[in-house]
Amino acid sequence: MITLENLVLSYPDGNRRLTALDKVSLTARNGELVGITGPSGSGKSSLLAVAATLATPDSGHVYVDGEEITGLSRDAAARVRRERLGIVFQQANLVPSLNALDQLLAVPTLGGGRRARRAAKARAVELLEAVGLGAQAKLMPHQLSGGQRQRVNIARALVSAPSVLLVDEPTSALDSQAGSAVIELIAELTAANGTSTLLVTHDLQHAHRFDRLVTLVDGAIVEPELAGAAALSRP
Amino acid sequence: MFLARRDLVFAKGRFALIASVVALITVLVGFLTGLTAGLAGQNVDAVLSWKADRLVVSAPQAGASESFATSALTQEQVDAWRRAAPDAEVSPIGLSQLSASHGELRAGIALVAGAPGAGTGPGAEGLAAPATGEAVLSHDAASALGAAAGDTITVAGSELRVSAVEGTGHYSHVPLVSVAPDTWRAAAARTGADAGTVATVLAITGAVPDDAAEAAQRESGTVSLSGLQALSAVGSFRSEIGSLGLMIALLLGISALVVGAFFTVWTLQRKGDLAVLKALGAPTGALVRDALAQAGIVLLIGIAVGLGLVVAAGSALPSGLPFVLSPLTTLFPGAVMAILGLGGAAVALRSVTHADPQTALGSAR
After folding, report:
1. What percent helix, strand, coil does chain A show, rounded to 5?
2. How many interface pairs between A and B have CB atoms less than 8 angstroms apart?
3. ipTM of this predicted complex?
4. What's the pLDDT tens digit per position in B278-324?
């Protein structure tokens, strides 16, 4: 379970500060897929960055399974990301020199050595099977289609069996069919693994697959009835 | 080395290119080092063979530096040092660069004479001094003059019977010919040495108190030299070794810069990948170690290939060429290249630590 509590984040913007997150509180329970939507610049990516320990909030707290992960040292934050969080990037962001299987093994190996790699390998093979890429494990990124690369991206995020999955616009680079398949896959994996998933998206055609949909406007979560109006009034 | 090995295979063309550059620089450094050692040997190995704690030469004229070429010691100066160092062994050594002939052949030689045991024979420690009127030729001198034991050569107008051919000693790039002290004195007198000259240099073995040495220097108008100081008194040694050493140092510096430049570009190209891996939780230290290991592999392969070429080509060189093939002229410069190259790579790899994992969110590569 991940809990975001009163998160405030601001960036310097010329002589003033721009508020990216304004007292945001949000919880995703185990096995729950929470969609986060909102217009451009509403703070969706900032929310994900703070939840992923990639940005430090001005105030507020982030808890994973009841344990606070805000304000950690660089190394401790890296360990949390490696062991307890899974991140699915907007683009697949695969390392060009690694085949599909090695994409999943890279971070466990770099972070934990041979033993961690052995443990990760069995799970990585399973995950590639689960995302339908068992036969493509040895293929390099340039040999995979866009949808396949995004599936590797998802499998990579799950290799450490994280309790939290943070997903950033996973369908933005895919066609409608591949996008639907990816959302379906994330929903299935969330339910199957009991993961708490925060999924940032612009694309509301898959909203029915979310357990909950949260809308951000100007860095704050708005009520559902206000969210509709905001979505209509902003590009 | 998870990433290192896979990157090496993935971008094998680029890594082969930089390894080839490292190999070529290693070849240059290896050949220059071997040549430097060979030339240094041809210049000073006679001096190095003298088993002395300090060498004494004439005090130079104002503005000049100590030189074996201009040094001429009298019996009074020798005696002054013997009085100053009663417990040390003071051996006068005569040394002149002359020409010698044998039949139609003429060659430059270094005529050397010293007391028995002074190590003044052509490369043979403890060689007994030849008798008056005789000469021991080093192999290179014998070869240049076409002479063998029993032949007669002419040096400074005197005929000398070759009693033996042995050793490989050189002084100032000409081969040694060893003679008896009185034979050397006669030759020196005939070639313009000052009257009363009995030696060029004193080889002193054993302790000499500093104050006694200073007093002897003042009294006798001489200068005592030790170690590298003495080598710099050999004409051209300092400038020759200095020039070659500078070239080697520049090549080593260039190799570090080339390796550093390559890994700077390589790491900048990978900065996005590194940000992704860091965002996923890869420790920065592990990424730096992996990248350094990659640089180490490239350097080791390049240096090993380069040294292999140096050893192969160096072994095939004719024996007369001034080229020394030894661990000091191959493994040592190779190790220095590896250390400097890793240093260059380490500086370049600072970008690894600067890769911001937050940029992985929302990035399209």
Report:
1. 45, 25, 30
2. 102
3. 0.90
4. 999 999 999 999 999 999 999 999 999 999 999 999 999 987 788 99
